[in-house]
TrEMBL record:
Residue ranges of domain Retrotransposon gag in the record: 56-136
Gene this chain is encoded by: LOC109086861
Domain of life: Eukaryota
Name listed for the protein in its UniProt record: Uncharacterized protein LOC109086861 isoform X3
UniProt xrefs under PANTHER family: ANK_REP_REGION DOMAIN-CONTAINING PROTEIN-RELATED (PTHR33198), CCHC-TYPE DOMAIN-CONTAINING PROTEIN (PTHR33198:SF19)
Organism phylogeny: Eukaryota, Metazoa, Chordata, Craniata, Vertebrata
Pfam families registered for this protein in UniProt: Retrotrans_gag (PF03732)
Amino acid sequence: MAQIGRLDEYKPENESWSAYIERAELFMIANDVDDTKQVATLLSAVGASTYGLLRNLVQPAKPKDKTFEEIVNILKAHFEPKPLIIAERFRFQRCVQKPHETVSQYVAELKQCASKCDFGASLDESLRDRFVSGIRSEACQRRLLSEDTLTFARALEVAHSMETADRDTQQLRKTEDSATTVHKICEAEWYYAYQKCTKTPSNKWIGRKICPDVQEGDTSAPGWTS
């Protein structure tokens, strides 16, 4: 049976240890790795740096003598020490939508902050309150504050809808502005030619508007307009 996927070495700068273990477990399921081979599979994949760290953490024991769950927990305690809840909630309360950040991007950041806050059953309510407080659009914020039974899901629905409408409106305005600019350029390309009037004793010059393609003074050309 051909191997499905690939389990790269663990790089702390690229992903969390928890995310890596989730991928490792999926890799083992997809490739029918027997329980007795899970430790060897993981230790062979994590890379020299992580393996060396684990050796130091479990001395005088050997990494291969630990269970899969023990290895996961030992390295999790090192890479993901338990956060201080009060500090994480402080960061969560300061999370606001940044300039040029979309609603989706803001929500992703908000959920990332909330993941360390241990909100439990009040997670959705906390996300809703912070989302309404931190969203940049004042129009959207007023709309959300006007709904008595607002849920986090409903807040996202309204925000996405208003963001889309605002983006479409701006695009339409750009199109209209572009059309106006083109019209003004066309107008500017017309110029006035002057023809001496021989029918009036005052010998005045009469202004005429003429297409640039028509020779000046050619009063018989179809481009002449009064």
